[in-house]
Amino acid sequence: MKNSARVQTAGPTVDLIVVTYNNAELLGRCLRSILTNTGEPIRVIVVNNGSPLEIHAPANVVVLETGKNLGWMGGVNHGVRWAAENTPAPFVLWMNDDTQILDHDHGWLTKMMNCFQLDPAVGAVGPTSNAVMGQQTMQLQGLPPAIEVTRLSGLCFLTRHKNVEIVGSLDESLPGGDDLDYAIRMRDAGFKLCVCRRTFLFHHYAQTGRKVHGEYWDSRAHTEDLNTALIKKHGFKKWMDCVSDRLGAGPAGYDFVASEEALAMSELDPVIAAGGKVLDLGCGGRKLHEKMVGVDIRANGQMGVGGNANHGAASDVEADVLDLPMESRSVDGILAKHLLEHIVDPIAALTEWHRVLKPGGKIVVLCPDYRLCEAISVDPSHVHAYTPESVSSLLRAVGFDVTRTDQVRPGYVFMVVATSLKYEHVNYGPHRTTSGEIEIGVYV
Hints:
Blueprint: H1 4-7, E1 14-20, H2 24-37, E2 42-48, E3 61-65, H3 71-85, E4 91-96, E5 99-101, H4 108-114, E6 122-129, E7 146-149, E8 156-160, H5 161-167, H6 178-188, E9 192-203, H7 207-213, H8 220-234, H9 236-243, H10 256-273, E10 278-281, E11 293-296, E12 317-318, E13 331-337, H11 346-356, E14 357-368, H12 388-397, E15 400-407, E16 413-420, E17 431-432, E18 438-439
Parallel strand pairs: 1-2, 1-4, 2-3, 6-9, 10-11, 10-13, 11-12, 13-14
Antiparallel strand pairs: 4-8, 5-9, 6-8, 7-9, 14-16, 15-16, 17-18
């Protein structure tokens, strides 16, 4: 039977390096979880520091027998060098052999890779876990889906091959603390470190370290030794900045719903204050502002489904947002809050919204961010997933000028603001006006 690796048409996007030392049982669990639950095309590179291994695995698994114990850092460096010399993938990830991917989390790696799209300066990404330092621990609650941090654990560390070329190899002279050292060096090189809190790895913790070093591993004496080495190498301030987690999520319990609404109103308040007509499309059970015109497919007071199962519609106008009962060029502003992702034909919707907006009229779109959340599976009525760039492209395609993109912090939502470009005549396809006439034309 063919396996997924043998029918893969794309080259690997990630070189995934697992260093092991006489830990066959946990290594087997780790590899099975990776091969079973990874949707991205990968090449797995097992660096074996211990006794020779017999691994019956797909063609995308490579075993490097070192013949001696190179240590964790030496093993990672050996694997990275081998990958770099043998058609490297764009990304490289090193991880412990005592970690496991959760069953059916096929997007664990994709979610981590998506974090690199959030900021060009993102240089490395790590997941959450049950046994891990800092803001990667699963025990922290109320944090946004991705946060900038000052350190990342080496239990699972994703970066680009080209970043390793810039920062260099792990420092094998250190008594541990290689992940803290690498965090400092990456930030010195201008990179940001990011925790993807949407990805979770189970960690059995310190299985090899204690096997090799006994009770010294992670003891107070070991901690003192590695902290002393890091301070000697980088200085006290950089060490303290690294271990203190001074960057991160902001106050716990922050209300991102209130934040996204405030962000939208920062754009629409001036329109309303000037007496402009603003539509709240798909308003559901509550209009964002009392002076907006609520438009919903449900009649006022009618109960909905899902999140609106217990809320009557707050609509002033009962209508399908793809066929608005308004004259062309009659509206000053439009709010589409968590609406576009529910619409099968977004071009048709945006074209209709462009029709009713006056030249220079403003549209505010709020959507879940595909880079930060399961934008479709989070709600069964979602049919599309978006990023700020994809929504901006759609808006431009139908005649809008994008004036602002912003992120709701913390949270998983973005906002795109655009204005309707001026045109000489209209051609959106046939549309019946409230007077019964048919308009046909072309956007200019």
